[in-house]
Amino acid sequence: MTHIIACIDGSSLTKYVTNASVWAANRMDSPLTLLHSLEKDPIRTDEDLSGAIGFGSREHLLDELVELDQRRAKLAVEYGKIILDNADELAKKAGATQTNTLQRHGDLVDNLIDLETDARLFVLGRLGTNHTLSAQTVGTHIERAARTLHRPILITVDDFTPPSNFMIAYDGREAANNAIARIAQSPLLKGLPCHLVMAGDATPERRKKLEEAHKMLEKEGFDVTASIIPGKIYPVLTEYRKENNIDLMAMGAYAHSKVRQFFVGSNTSKMIVESDVPLLILR
């Protein structure tokens, strides 16, 4: 569990994913692996082609189409290597001291699962609110990654800048406390002011849990502002983030929790599209 793994695809997000991963690698004193996945074209396979042409068609046409697909696959490999080389150069200019590149065939999330035992943090990118892609398109890989992976995931936005503070969405459950413990023990966010926020009623039990989490973070040297704010999770967190100029939001992916439903449930794509700050997901 040593590497920061950055998912690079050659899009406009590549620069920001690279910058975010360099920041994380330097904060955590870990080597950086730049990963490019060559995902299979979901539209067409050789079997699809042979079935579509049918009897009576010229066989050479199928041969030409197969040859074209093979050429496309070769070009995709070459293009992927260029993407990785450029990202590696960018990472070194940004201050990375230990980098390597990795190109793999197959689905991105499947590749991340295979690499998880050697990962300390995954970094993925998503488009900001100034883009017109649908939430479903933007969030496909991220939602699957959040549901499947057990290592922390940093989701960066376009125009990444190192955060000067962060907010933790907290619900008082055991899994939430585990997430707090991981943040407290990790160097990733050490030294940054922390805003610990609970949404909902300020019952004595919830106040006690918030205070315990507060003390856990303070014990590790964090400067913490803790708050319980009445209301539903999404509007509370969104409004607090805007009012307090929060640079990064951290939250757990919890089973049987409203926070999990908020983030890795039906509201996932909404959060991915509407948030304009990086998101740190902890399992």
TrEMBL record:
Database matches in Pfam families: Usp (PF00582)
Domain UspA residue range list: 2-155, 203-283
Superkingdom classification of source: Bacteria
Entries under Gene3D superfamilies matching the protein: 3.40.50.12370
InterPro entries registered for this protein in UniProt: Universal_stress_UspA, UspA
Protein family (similarity comment): Belongs to the universal stress protein A family.
Name of the protein in question: Universal stress protein
